Amino acid sequence: MSTHAHHLTDGTAGRDAAHAAPLGAPSSAPAATPTHAAGHAAGHAAGQSAAPSAGGLDAGQVLEALLAETVRRGGSDLHLRAGVPPRVRVDGDLLPLGRALPGALLTQMLRGAMPADALEVYDRDLEADLAITMTGIGRFRVNAFRTRGEDAAVLRRVAEEPQKLSSLGMPPVIRDLALRRRGLVLVTGPTGSGKTTTLAAMIDAINDERAVHVLTLEDPIEVVHSSRAATVTQRELGSDSRSWSGALRAAMRQDPDVILIGEMRDADTVHAALSAAETGHLVMSTLHTTDALETVQRVIDFFPPHEQPRVRAALAACLQGVVCQRLVPTVDGGRAPVLEIAVGDVRLSEAVADPERTGEIPDVLAESGYSGMQTFDQHLVRLVVEGVLSEDDARGAASKPHDFGVMLRRTGWRPDAPTPAASAFAGGAR
């Protein structure tokens, strides 16, 4: 399961043309190992203000070395700020990498990485999102911003192509949701939980099997899909469309069967998604919510009270599924995805439609394992029983720690006993 930790970082690949132009092209000089190059670049760049900046390395080479070391360490994110050491996130921990980078060097690194349109946005808004490719190293999603008057950035390592749902350890019900013909499917979770990776794998499943038009609206494009059975059209905010509202309006004139919206950001986006789902399209998107109940409430709360009854009715009619993800430390030092899964059926629809019954959604999930549903706590129990998670880590991640403990005891599991058969736990998706 620890393999999943590196697959399920939130984000995958970047822009394939201008937004993914290779940075820091390989030097004609003999290449140092990633460890040496990163240490040399980060450690000796301090105090120098212009490229070439670190023992003959220019700003692009410094960035290349830091990203190579991030990949070598199995890191998911690289944090860059002026005057402090770069830091890399490995299995959830943020660890120092080399010595402090001077502000002038960091500015050169970031501005050199940005294509013209992203640089224009950054100069105007003091923050920008983009995706880049480093030849021979990988692809990264970049958020550049200012802090205390200095340039800074977080670069997230992302996969260069979509992964298969099976390689992510996803249960069959996730593929079933991806292959629905219409309705709304939401993948949710905190930042870094793997939402983008899962959505990309779901789009890839469609691309394997359905002769349809898949239209994605993203900011930025992360996973690049090649058309196979499906025709995949990917549009990026800024380079392919000037606004979300314009892209969403245009989407309905582009003959889509499946629409992926990068994130539900506001009432207008939610309204467009619900309208498309109600008119026979499969719509997929993400939210930063922690479980199925909060997801339903968040969608409804985008709207003022007088509009909420209409939104409830629309959501109840078109919601096909909610997949909520968290990453939890494993006993072998990695991280495993833990899933809460809601599948659209009569009981779920009734709970969404009736505000007096919406609070019953966790009970619907807990009692509907036969249709692939499960709560976070049910999945946590199974992973403890299977020896993937420790009891303490699972309890710390549980939505209801007391209920988690009761369910775990009912399986007959004991810390000092051999792992019982997973079938001892009843309920939830497999």
Automatic annotation (TrEMBL):
Family matches, as PROSITE patterns: T2SP_E
Alphabetical list of InterPro entries matching this protein: AAA+_ATPase (IPR003593), P-loop_NTPase (IPR027417), PilT/PilU (IPR006321), T2SS/T4SS_dom (IPR001482), T4SS_GSP_E_ATPase (IPR050921)
SMART domains: AAA
GO terms, molecular function: ATP binding; ATP hydrolysis activity
Spans annotated as Disordered: 1-54
Biased composition (Low complexity): 19-54
A Pfam family annotated for this UniProt entry: T2SSE
Domain Bacterial type II secretion system protein E: 252-266
Stated family: Belongs to the GSP E family.
Xref: PANTHER family: TWITCHING MOTILITY PROTEIN PILT, TYPE IV PILUS ATPASE PILU
Protein name (Swiss-Prot/TrEMBL): PilT/PilU family type 4a pilus ATPase
